[in-house]
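Protein in question passed on here:
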Amino acid sequence: MVFNSIRDLLWDYGCYENEIREFLFKRWGFRRRQKEAISIVDGIMTAHGKQELLGHVTELARVEYGIRELEPWVRDHVVHALLSFLLGIHINEHFMRPSGYGVDKFQWKLSGLFHDIGYPVQVAGDVAKPFADRINKIKKDLNIKAPDVFFRLIPMGIDQLNNGVESLNLIQRRLDDWGLSVDATREYRAMLDSGRICHGVMSSLSVLYVIDLMYQKYNPVREYRDIYDPPGIIWNQSYFENDVVSACAAIFVHNLPAHCFARTPLDKQKAPLAFLLRLADCLQDWDRPSADNSRGISNREFKISIKGDRLIFTVNDTKRRKKIAAEVKASMLTTGIEIC
């Protein structure tokens, strides 16, 4: 059981053991579980002075709950983020770190907990599609020849940081450091041209934008020294460039299509943070309510074990096992990983 393997590590990641135990084992309803997840995320981030990000998660929970009638197929992403974070702790400490490629705890907090906060923006675009489809059907029924109607959601300004800095450039530098052949600007523009929002891209840019605002308030000159304001919270530009940008780069690529990794798949040795996020996100498929299953698939249908340098992930359902295995294999080097 993952909980037993990480219970002694939770404090290092800003978690309370009893709080996590209740979250994992109490049989709460959908909305109560989201509320508890938000409370836990609040506690984790408050220690680093980044609790302002909680507003994103709160809005995500509210929007996701409210859109279930509009898009009943939408799966939960709030609880999923916390479960992915906890699963990632297990993988990081028992699979990654022993082999010398452990991920920084603060970087994992940012990427693991906030990798899906842009999902409401993606849903906003998806909700408009049925309306356009209905108009186009009426046009077809009337046998009128005219161009199809469509709606496009275009983000404005989210990629522009303070002091004339472009977030896509910062992200690109980190992707280059990791040896990935992903062109951040090209992927962003392709997203806009397609009219389909990628929640990974929007989550990445949103987190980077908000934290940049916070640094602009507490360290406007962007000094490379420890600035304690408020007391106990450090606003050193080096942390922004190293930790925050790394987390946002990992979030940026976590939902990109498989073809982006055809030449340079994610490698735990070269890009451990991005590797860990994509892996945890792919594997975490239980307790996710959807239209087909109001409670989600039971965690009893999955099992993870780590033996030396091997990670073995067992999925009882054949169809789901093949889907997860294909997702993992399509984007990362799977040496030492077995989906069975």
In short: The chain has one domain: 2-339. The chain has a mean pLDDT of 89. Residues 2-339 form one domain.
